[in-house]
Design goal:
Belongs to the TBP family. This is TATA-box-binding protein. GO terms for molecular function: DNA binding; DNA-binding transcription factor activity. A 10-stranded antiparallel β-sheet has the order 2-3-4-5-1-6-10-9-8-7, with helices on one face. The two termini are about 15 Å apart. It has 2 domains: about 20-95, TATA-Binding Protein; about 105-175, TATA-Binding Protein. Helices cover about 25% and strands about 35% of the residues. A hairpin with a 3-residue loop joins strand 4 (about 55-60) and strand 5 (about 60-70). It is an alpha+beta fold and about 180 residues long.
């Protein structure tokens, strides 16, 4: 692994409770701090504090979990919410299916970049400094987008795993050495 520092900023997961339907009106009253206004949005917005994660809960038994900064934290938040649901009388027979939709990480490559040169040398890039100060670098394997900045910092989006993030850091480093 190349020596690129990275930090996961956000993980987005889809969570499916198979053969389960939620009574959102009832759940909103049971989950402390839950917000439910069906006129505005067809789901419950709920924030877990420890570990930190936010959920959108739908009547279909599906949820989105966002805001966790580690897979361990995301899984603990989902387990804790599942336990709270079971304890409040919601029938959940199976453990939920969890799928990573997106991981976002910040990079520090430890050196500055000449974005003009990178843009000229690679076809899978976009650089329009009058519109956005970063260079957009699209990778096919792993299928992610990395935003690079002159400062040597970057943002990786679209990863499905931490291995994808590390692989992206390595590929960018190899490409622009």
């Amino acid at each position: 692994m190349v020596d690129v520092k990275y930090e996961i900023q956000n993980i987005v997961l889809s969570v499916t409770y198979e053969d389960t339907e939620f009574d959102l009106e009832r759940l909103a009253g049971l989950l402390e701090g839950a917000r439910y206004d069906p006129e505005v949005f067809p789901g419950i917005a709920y924030k877990s504090v420890d570990p930190t994660a936010s959920f959108l809960i739908f009547a279909s038994g599906k949820m989105n979990c966002v805001g966790a900064k580690s897979m361990g934290g995301a899984k603990r938040a989902i387990e804790k919410l599942t336990e709270n649901l079971r304890n409040s009388g919601v029938e959940i027979d199976k453990e939920p299916q969890v799928k990573v939709q997106n991981m976002v990480a910040s990079f520090d490559f430890g050196r500055e970049f000449d974005l003009e040169t990178i843009a000229r040398n690679f076809r899978n890039t976009e650089y329009e400094p009058e519109v956005f100060p970063g260079l957009v670098f699209r990778l096919d394997d792993p299928k992610v987008v990395v935003l690079l900045f002159v400062s040597g910092k970057g943002v990786c989006a679209g990863a499905k795993s931490e291995a994808d993030i590390e692989e992206a850091a390595g590929r960018i480093t190899e490409a622009i050495e």
